[in-house]
Amino acid sequence: MSRKKNILLASTCIVLGMALAGPAAHAAEEVLTAVRSTHQFYLDGEQIQLEAYLINGNNYVKLADVGEALDFNVYWDDAVRIESGAPYTGHASEQASGLEQTRQDIAALVNQVRREHGLPELAVDQRLMTAAQELSGKKYTWHHNREECEAVADAGYPYGFRSNITVFTGAALPEISRRAVENWVDSPGHLQAMLAPDTDSLGVGVTVEQGVTYCYLLLGDPTTNNPYG
User: Fold this and answer.
1) What span, in angstroms and rounded, lies between the C-alpha atoms of 117 and 92?
2) Which residues contact 184 (CB under 8 A, 6 or more apart)?
3) pLDDT value of residue 68
4) pTM, rounded to two decimals
5) pLDDT digits 0-9 by tens, 48-102
């Protein structure tokens, strides 16, 4: 078993979270007590040091500390971001920063296509950006309608939407935005979604893993409803 998967938490379980709202929500009068945990933690048979607090019999530790121990990257950027293939630094890697720019470049190219067809540009909606990035991170190779609807609703966007997805290999970072939009333009159904007259906003998600690029485009349509919203 790999080092990243072989972690033994002695006589307890580990809960990775940023807040303790879940347990407290069951009863308003319930008071939770957190005490410093004295449990020992082991990684590949060797004891490691993790700051943990015992609450209702469970150990709560910082996700960043787990990332540092297992050497995957965790950082905060308006939300918790995890880069499973990058070493721990606590901040966005160079690839993550490049992909953020790629997302903006895709949005700009989509608006360029709309202008070429005499349509107004779409505003970048951070709720759709969040949902699109979450969906790209799932590495879907075809549409999952319910999961897409739930991701958009969970991100706080209250209306319906259209979605495009494209997956490809062999693209260097500077080529991703152009290739993604060209794929959508070359597909009649995807082009129709980009040119839908009732859409007024968009969000883009891009994930690259093991040489495969997963791109999501969400186009907000305030004239429709999200069935899972």
Assistant:
1) 37
2) 110, 164, 166, 190, 191, 193, 194, 217
3) 78
4) 0.62
5) 888 888 888 888 888 878 877 877 777 665 566 676 666 776 655 545 567 889 9
Q: Which two tokens stand for residue 173?
A: 């970072």
- Is the Cβ–Cβ distance between 167 and 211 less than 8 Å? no
Summarize pLDDT for 104-149 with one digit per residue, the tens: 999 999 999 999 999 999 999 999 999 999 999 999 999 999 999 9
Query: CA-based diameter of the chain, in Å?
Result: 66
User: How far apart are the C-alpha atoms of 110 and 215, rounded to whole Å?
Assistant: 13
What is d(CA 153, CA 91) in angstroms, rounded to the nearest whole number?
Answer: 28
% of residues, the chain, pLDDT over 70: 78
- For every residue of the chain, DSSP letters joined together read --TTT-EEETTS-EEE-S--HHHHTT-TT-----EE----EEETTEEE---EEEETTEEEE-HHHHHHHHT-EEEESSSEEEETTS---SS--HHHHHHHHHHHHHHHHHHHHHHHTT-PPPEE-HHHHHHHHHHHHTT-SS--HHHHHHHHHHTT--SEEEEEEEEEES--GGGHHHHHHHHHHTSHHHHHHHT-TT--EEEEEEEEETTEEEEEEEEEETTS--TT-
Query: What would the mean pLDDT of 195-212 be, rounded to a whole number?
Result: 95
